[in-house]
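Table S7 (text form). Paired inputs.
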Amino acid sequence: MKRQPLHTRTVSFQTFRREDGLFEVEAQLKDVRGYDTTVPEKGVLPAGEPVHHMTITATVDAHMEVRALESRMLATPFGYCTQVENSLQAMVGARMATGWRRAISERVQAGESCTHLRELLLNMATAALQTIPTWLAQQRMQTGQDRTPDGQRPHYLGQCHSWRLDSPVVKLHLPRFHQPLSPSTNPGTAPGAKQESS
């Protein structure tokens, strides 16, 4: 069956380590349509031209604290949109960890920012958590140290099926954090799971 492409949203995240020891998390969002669109202010927007194109670069330290943040709005439906291009500065000082979603809601009000910038910002924490703790753990392991500082519990434990505290994966690879499923535990509940603050 033939299909006509109507809309493509591309979202990407990259993380870099800087020579000064800090990290940069870069996020990009781009929306394009597969057909010419008549839009306010611009008239006809040709197929393939971005409706939205936003980028964010967050400078983060090893403790996941945001040290600096830059956002750019390279393509927007309205010129008025760009008035909130720098609306994310209130997130400097916040940590990309549990409570990140709540911090965004409290520090960056919806009517004072851009929906798409806030969407990107929310998911940058996931990219950072996939990158920075893993890189630091690998560096420690290469020097014969424990993968977590001072034997701390890794942030990902209790957050998915394989890393449930009662799973065979945890029992094999991180046995000191393994918690056997007790008879009173609901089989559908992962012991030790932490809920994200909303």
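Next pair, protein 2 of 2.
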Amino acid sequence: MTAKDGAIRVELKRADVAELVLKHELLRACPLVMALGDRAATILGTGVGRRYPEGTTIFHQGQPGDSVFLVLRGEVRLTRSQDQAPVELGVAGQGDVFGEGELLEPKERSCSAYAGNDVDAVELTRAKLLQRGQLPLELHAFLTDVQTQRRKAQDELSQFLDRW
């Protein structure tokens, strides 16, 4: 168990993360794993399993970001502080990814993430994924698509709210 910025982060038992994901029927069919295809085991094998107890902050808005997470179990709440009041952006559940924007281009986290209940996740760090010089093409394409879809949804919501 490690503490960082007041958050508790527990590493899962040393297990082959790729094997854990690929043996689970629902996770094996999640969009990320499907997009990675034959390279899923290799790419997921670079990840580290994490366990976050309910209420634990996974990362804070404004922190440097260099990783993406795949939720194995539980729900992650994503919030953004605006005028000191947190606004919930969404929930990431089993098979969902979050933190993709900061993996694609390292920058500060655009939102905060915390465990809505007990969460198990795989953290894929930029450093491990870049060992061969660039992000795997399948991963880059998938995360770019996810980021584009989320930006479009946020823009549509902003436009809707601006009309009120």
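The mean pLDDT is 85.
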